[in-house]
């Protein structure tokens, strides 16, 4: 069975600083991995996804993530934080390895950005 | 990208009443839709998988008689919370996968049961 672990329920960075949100996964099949962002009282917006191919994935708003099979990790990074990045971030793995399966979510990491 | 809508976005009801939440895929067809529930400051938990033309499949611990799901067409799934109680208050989110490797999420419905 798939599972996702996000280290740190709350991360705080200064504006302009590096953002690093950690995600480790467990999967018995080649994983399809996702990062979503959620703003208060809103649904989820896809930041980026890894399916196959290049292990460094670039997403929207300057975010990127690298799939490291040996470390079973898919950490999310952004070189320079912006105030508008403050939100909840969820890492997810797709059950059964494809889009037709439901997503298994981590518990989420709340990102705060200090001015 | 594809768009999924939910209606209503927010509902407040009295204990014992039933509430219907609609999930629509606006520009693509979805034979499968997923319903998630999110409690405050927690992650999304899958409740059930809605299948067009057949019965929904429910996750362990989710009462199928309380959370009725109907996938009436390739673009519409409904979740009805029957005899709602305060403990059912939550944020309900649906999603639908397109033909690619992505699921599209609705904006969510905030249910408050008084």
**Fraction in helix of chain B:** under 10%
Shape of chain B: globular
Radius of gyration of chain A: 13 Å
State the assembly state of the protein chains: heterodimer
Biggest sheet descriptor of chain B: 7 strands, mixed
> Termini distance of chain B?
37 Å
Topology:
The complex is a heterodimer of chains A (115) and B (114).
Chain A: E1 3-7, E2 10-14, E3 19-26, E4 33-38, E5 44-50, E6 56-58, E7 64-68, E8 73-78, E9 87-94, E10 103-105, E11 109-114
Parallel strand pairs in A: 2-11
Antiparallel strand pairs in A: 1-3, 3-8, 4-5, 4-9, 6-7, 7-8, 9-10, 9-11
Chain B: E1 4-7, E2 10-13, E3 19-25, E4 32-38, E5 44-51, E6 57-58, E7 67-73, E8 76-81, E9 90-97, E10 103-105, E11 109-113
Based on the model shown, name its key terms:
heterodimer; A: 115 residues; mainly beta; six-stranded mixed β-sheet; five-stranded antiparallel β-sheet; 54% strand; B: 114 residues; four-stranded antiparallel β-sheet; globular
Describe what you observe in this structure.
Chain A is mostly beta strands and 115 residues long. Helix content of chain A is 0%, strand content 54%. In chain A, the strands form two sheets. In chain A, strands 2, 4, 5, 9, 10 and 11 form a six-stranded mixed sheet that branches. In chain A, strands 1-3-8-7-6 form a five-stranded antiparallel sheet, with no helix packed on it. In chain A, strand 7 and strand 8 (73-78) form a beta hairpin. Chain B is mainly beta and 114 residues long. In chain B, the strands form two sheets. In chain B, strands 2, 4, 5, 6, 9, 10 and 11 form a seven-stranded mixed sheet that branches. In chain B, strands 1-3-8-7 form a four-stranded antiparallel sheet, with no helix packed on it. In chain B, strand 9 (90-97) and strand 10 (103-105) form a beta hairpin. Classes of the chains: A mainly beta (115), B mainly beta (114).
């Amino acid at each position: 069975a798939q599972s996702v672990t996000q280290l740190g329920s709350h991360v705080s960075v200064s504006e302009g600083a590096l953002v690093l949100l950690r995600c480790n996964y467990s999967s018995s099949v080649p994983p399809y991995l996702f990062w979503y962002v959620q703003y208060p009282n809103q649904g989820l917006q896809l930041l980026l996804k890894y399916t196959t191919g290049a292990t460094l994935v670039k997403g929207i708003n300057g975010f990127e993530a690298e799939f490291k099979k040996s470390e079973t990790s898919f950490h999310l990074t952004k070189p320079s934080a912006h105030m508008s990045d403050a939100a909840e971030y969820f890492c997810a793995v797709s059950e059964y390895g494809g889009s037709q399966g439901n997503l298994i979510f981590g518990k989420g990491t709340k990102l705060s950005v200090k001015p | 990208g594809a768009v999924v809508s939910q209606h209503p976005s927010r509902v407040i009801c009295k204990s014992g009443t039933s509430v219907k939440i609609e999930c629509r895929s606006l520009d693509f067809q979805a034979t499968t839709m997923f319903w998630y529930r999110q409690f405050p400051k927690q992650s999304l938990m899958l409740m059930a998988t809605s299948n067009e033309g057949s019965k929904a499949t429910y996750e362990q611990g989710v009462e199928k008689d309380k959370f009725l799901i109907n996938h009436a067409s390739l673009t519409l799934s409904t979740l009805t919370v029957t005899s709602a109680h305060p403990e059912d208050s939550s944020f309900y989110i649906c999603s639908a996968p397109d033909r690619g490797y992505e699921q599209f999420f609705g904006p969510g419905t905030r249910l408050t049961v008084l």
